[in-house]
Write a structure and sequence with these properties.
heterodimer; A: 480 residues; alpha/beta; Amidase signature (AS) enzymes; 39% helix; 13% strand; B: 482 residues; alpha+beta; Arc Repressor Mutant, subunit A; 3 domains; three-stranded antiparallel sheet; 15 helices; binds zinc ion
Amino acid sequence: MELCDYQAAELARLLRKREISSREITESALLRIENKDKTLNAFLTVTPEFALKQADAADKKFKEGRDISPVTGIPVAIKDNLCTKGIRTTCASKILEHYIPPYDATVVKKILQKGAVLIGKTNMDEFAMGSSTENSAFGPTRNPRDIKRVPGGSSGGSACAVASGEAVLAIGSDTGGSIRQPASFCGVTGMKPTYGRVSRYGLVSYASSLDQIGPIGRSVEDCTMLMDVIAGYDKRDTTSINVPKPDFSGSLSSDINGLRIGLPKEYFVEGLDPLVKEKVIDAVNLLGSHGAEIIEISLPRTPFAVGAYYLIATAEASSNLARYDGVKYGLRAERDQSGLEEMYEYTRSEGFGKEVKRRIMLGCYVLSAGYYDAYYLKAQKARTLIKDDFDRAFQDVDCIITPTSPSTAFEIGEKSDDPIKMYLVDIYTVSLNLSGLPGMSVNCGTIDGLPVGLQIIGKPFDEETLFCAGHAYQQIAERK
Amino acid sequence: MDFDVIICFEIHAELSTKTKLFCRCPVSYDAAPNENICPVCTGHPGTLPVLNRKAVECCIRAGLALNCNINSRSIFARKNYFYPDLPKGYQISQYECPLCEDGYLEIPGDDGKPYIVGIKRIHLEEDAGKLVHSAVTFEASEYSLVDYNRAGVPLIEIVADHTKNPIRSLQEARSYLGKVRQILQHIGVSDCVIEQGQFRCDVNISLRQVKSPDFNERVEIKNMASFKSIIEALKYEIKRQSEIIESGGEISQETRLFDEVKMVTVPMRSKEDAPDYRYFPDPDLVELDIDRDFVRKIKDDMPELPGIRLNRFIKDFGISEEDAHLIIGKRDLSDYFESCVPYCTDLKKLGSWITNELIKVLNENSISIKKFPVAPKDFARLITLISCNNITEKIGRLVFKDMFETGGTPDSIIEEKGLKPIQETDILEKMVEEIMKENPGVVSRLKDGKKESVNFLIGKIMKRTRGRADAKKVSALILKKV
Ligand SMILES: [Zn+2]
């Protein structure tokens, strides 16, 4: 085991004791990238010089004993849809292949301020549209557990980097499951915070009302360390919410005595791989045997979720992606153009991939005159009903547990020709984005060497309970 | 055939806030291209809008001044369309739940009675940037550049009601536009400088044969750069549409552009080609809850409306109605007038000097009153000097010119230039004697009772003294001598 394979929390302890240096960790991660990333393709941009400079700055802080935070000196990978000043930010799209942002996303700024080491920008589905990281203009990322398989998506690069030791921590974004599902497929921990908990400023929008940034780590504890850094109100994002920010890592407990866990019956039906179901139920029972109370609940509007999600997400995306027109930045088609119309047409035809085009077209259709009421408004109504389901359920339970994904990682190319099949991969994750709820995927074992994820869903702004349940599970499972 | 006309304006006024609607870039009109821009107003990936509270205040203030209901819940929506001056590919505007609805404005009607024009809504939105073409016309241009200084500048759109008390004539159209502009200026929400694009409008017009129950389809006209072209466009359109109807044709619903050179409207797009803007609530901005106290505060702080101010100028200051109208026509001028008032004893003369001499100087030098260098106190002093016959109007104009050019006070200029009035009786008496000696013919005519001959002699003295002699005194002296 190399330094880059340690948990962040352990590395932080060793760094504080000055038994190791940030440079050593960073070099170990960079070496891993060099050795493995040709195969895995988790990174779109690696920033070795910048990383080592930051590592040395972190080591100086440890030497002087000042400005030390839990993430100081820890290599963090950032999904390539978060703007990094001076470092290209592509969203895995040809249209932004050479785009260098003039500013840092709020989350990036916070991470750098706390002395973490930005090691590179990770691969993803183009503009976060996808569930497998196959929709990247720069080639798919591979699952480190089985390179024939996908790492999940859209934050597949981030999850892969953490799982393979190419980074210790990573930042992802989650619009319909894009943190949780790849965390599940790669066997790491990934958390989507409550909508409004983390500033979206600088996150390249896919679907504004659903997007949320979150941490990916090797353990719940690692995720809390990153959450402490990125959470909080930001006046640059008026959809972020000004509520007190807990000390997530400081208050992390594994006391689940009397914790009421809901099991929604609609999530354990046909379509779910029976082996996945078994693993999840085993995990729930384990928690039950350690003091948690397991309660069967119903979320009857669950069947509407995927439909509502794809209507709302594509509607917002069709508008959010209008700015990529070749006028101000990014790609402009070089083909001869007769005028403005053709400049737009060629630029967007060449710049966007197939799935992005599909979603833009779907979204334009959803919003167009005559269809708006039937699709967009109806989807919003369904959204309200789905949220009501959760509100009602949370009167009786403290958190809800479901599978993160109906299956384990599938093979590259297996579903890429069938968008509907691919969309159904998100069946257990999209409801949370529609409802704004926090959710986390924690590994609960493997099937034929492929990780299975357990999804824990919490009340709005109650990430602490999620962390507690997840942490407890990881503690118990480790002892077993 | 005779026709009834319905005219319905959509007025866009740029707000005079310090910063843009969704970022902190300054709003200014003399910046170099793309000087006032940032990642937000140029639509960089990942940026988010943050609403300018002052702009909301301005919109509500306009709504209150135009008698609107202020909605307690208001939503921003995206209007989606592609154009290079629109950095995000959508304009943040309002669709459902605008800030203000159901207002009205009273104007003088054609029948002489007050007429209440219905206002449907006032909403807040962002302006787009500006395209600069490499040649005079777009067609002849090799390339076009975009200046985003204006992108994100707050605008209010005032939409008149097509069904509730619409405007019925060109005269009413003129009154309405003038009055809206005047109100916006007086309540301090917009400078409404038409040349700078701060006050623009589109107009819908439809006709109906008198006594026929229904109006024909309405036609929208865009692209008018001045009040004059709005009226010309309407005139042209009334003629065009009535000719079509008279010849048995049908008006189709369409949008037309006004050609400023040929003074005609030309088709832009038909109803079928009307763009689908795919409006939907902007998910990057939260719904606005408009607090009643917030509205009350805006109401309490509302500057005096021009109609009330006009009456006060006439009643309290005694200036002529004509001057009062001219002054009220521009808010800055009204403010200037009022800041002169405490220093001036002859307000009537102050009024007429502002509407004549001052406006003339402004026009000759094409500057705005904001940049006018003469302090109100000095201007008032000049008027007082004239009013007390310390100097003649003619000398007053010389002094005024000097004040404008050098920034000096009237007293110092009079002193320096030797323009002090000649008051001393002995000097004047001597001069009168000389002049009378030199013009015996005139004197004899005067003695014969031709009183008006006195003016000739006064004129001679004025010429000799370069206008510095006190004319009344001179006249008395001459008559005494005769
Ligand atoms: Zn700006």
